[in-house]
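Quick check before the chapter quiz. The format below is the same one you will see on the exam, so make sure you can read both the input and the output lines.
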Amino acid sequence: MNAQPSNLKAALWMAGWLAAMLVLIVAGRETTREITVFQVMEMRSVLGLLMLYPLIHLSGGFRAMKTSRPLMHIARNTVHYGSQYGWFAALTLIPIAQVVSIEFTMPIWTAIFAVAFLGEKMTPWKNLAIAFGLAGVLIIVRPGVSEINHGQIIMVVTAVGFGASIAMVKSLTRTESTVAIIFWMLVIQSIIGLWPALHVWQWPSAYVWFWIFPIAFCGTFSHYCMTRAMLYADATVVVPMDFLRVPLTAMIGWLVYSESIDMLTAVGTALILFGNLLNLKSGKPKIAQVAAESAP
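Here is the expected output.
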């Protein structure tokens, strides 16, 4: 589908993406106060699949969801499931600002995996992006200087996992539609998480149900908002808009959970975001869409 370029329309769709991601962070933390991460993820996948049906119908129905690459979908969603678990777990262990800051190293890990497995070329800009991103993570985590929080380690591993997942999605986009990729994500992750969720299942309270539906909705349609934004503007316009998520989540952490941000975390975050800007110089417009399809 070709659309007339419009930075305003791209910004409006990105506003939807940002709102969804902010709600997802708060909802994720609130639900995990009462039920396990496994149960949150299973309910999110099952409800998200039901909510996705209108887009499936508009895309040609379930027949249009057929795939010739089931093993790639399974591999990608196994990695993505583990990464999603790490993301939700990290929300319960470290400040929200640190979760999101470390998450923004995803494009850097994606560049490494794309070079290693997809035949993409490493450029000087990518090398600089990786260097700045790693420096930012080291400043935030500060190994050897302060006691490392397990949540920080989990989030670093999670970001690497998201990077690997994005690289696999980049491969899938050569043959699969966006809706099909999201469809198989929800189906496969529903199957993967069924036994762990049933093993620890407890019936959610009304308070949890209040947050579970936003998790399912935002976790599913945030992808669609980012994809729509990409129809109206290039990645060099869209991706920097996502950088607003860092100060906005820090503000949410401060207002809702009384979390503060130390100076070194702010410096590390700035280096990570600067590395992402450098990565855009050698990236393709589709990278933002791919990243959205691998978000929590």
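If your answer matched, good. Residues 284-288 have pLDDT under 50 and may be disordered.
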